[in-house]
């Protein structure tokens, strides 16, 4: 499989992904019964995972979407990330952050810091992919889809330079 100038091979096929997505949703249905969770999906990468996950979440719940500014290479401190689009009041809410991937953990740890200051009752993470070998900031991922090797992946929402988000399978870069 070629995306732009690079070659990729299948890491996880859609059948494996959907089975795991259903299991994650089942665990959330069980744990959040009566808790009216607010899901917050992190754009762009999480759009496909969030859509599939939510089809199997059957408890009363809400979902919203935010985009997080990535680091600016020019900023030396580099650690201020801006939340774009969070309009809901998250005070006393039970939040479930939906991420496609936790790699270094930078994005998710900044989000946790921000959400903690806004008075949420509880915050948990559901992440389809996790690269344990890449972690720089350790965060507890309550609902994890797959632990994967420290290789660049694309597909199922994840991009290579903007491309490749629109595949059912997840691919890893062939070096
Ligand atoms: O654990 P980290 O090293 O912080 O990496 C994980 C983040 O990287 C990806 O987002 P990206 O910044 O590529 O934006 P995108 O979702 O819009 O593609 C992914 O969706 C996570 O949010
Ligand atoms: N597409 C993509 N985005 C990422 N963001 C953090 N890690 C990755 C990765 O492996 N692939």
UniProtKB/TrEMBL annotation:
A single GO molecular-function term is: glycosyltransferase activity
Question: What UniProt keywords are attached to this protein's entry?
Answer: Cytoplasm, Glycosyltransferase, Magnesium, Metal-binding, Nucleotide-binding, Purine salvage, Transferase
Name of the encoding gene: hpt
Homology family: Belongs to the purine/pyrimidine phosphoribosyltransferase family.
Starting at the broadest rank, the lineage of the source organism is:
Bacteria, Pseudomonadati, Bacteroidota, Cytophagia, Cytophagales
Q: Name one Pfam family in it.
A: Pribosyltran
Q: What is its EC number?
A: 2.4.2.8
Domain named Phosphoribosyltransferase is located at 11-160
State the reactions this protein catalyses: GMP + diphosphate = guanine + 5-phospho-alpha-D-ribose 1-diphosphate; IMP + diphosphate = hypoxanthine + 5-phospho-alpha-D-ribose 1-diphosphate
* Classification via NCBIfam families: HGPRTase
Is ATP-binding found in the keyword set? no
Superkingdom of the organism of origin: Bacteria
Localization per record? Cytoplasm
In its UniProt entry, what is this protein called? Hypoxanthine phosphoribosyltransferase
Per the UniProt record, the source organism is: Agaribacillus aureus
Q: Sorted alphabetically, which CDD domains does this protein's record hold?
A: PRTases_typeI
Report the top EC class in one word: transferase
Q: Which cofactor does it need?
A: Mg(2+)
């Amino acid at each position: 499989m070629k995306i732009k100038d690079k070659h990729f091979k299948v890491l996880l096929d859609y059948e494996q992904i959907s089975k795991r997505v259903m299991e994650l949703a089942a665990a959330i249905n069980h744990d959040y019964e009566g808790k009216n969770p607010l899901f917050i999906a992190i754009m762009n990468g999480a759009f496909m995972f969030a859509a599939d996950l939510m089809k199997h979440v059957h408890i009363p719940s809400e979902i919203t979407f935010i985009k997080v500014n990535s680091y600016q290479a020019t900023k030396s401190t580099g650690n201020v990330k801006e939340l774009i689009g969070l309009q809901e009041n998250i005070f006393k809410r039970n939040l479930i952050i939906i991420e496609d991937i936790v790699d270094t953990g930078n994005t998710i740890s900044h989000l946790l810091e921000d959400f903690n200051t806004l008075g949420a009752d509880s915050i948990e993470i559901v992440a389809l992919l996790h690269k344990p070998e890449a972690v720089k900031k350790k965060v507890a991922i309550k609902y994890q889809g797959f632990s994967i090797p420290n290789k660049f992946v694309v597909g199922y929402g994840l991009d290579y330079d903007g491309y490749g988000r629109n595949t059912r399978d997840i691919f890893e870069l062939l070096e």
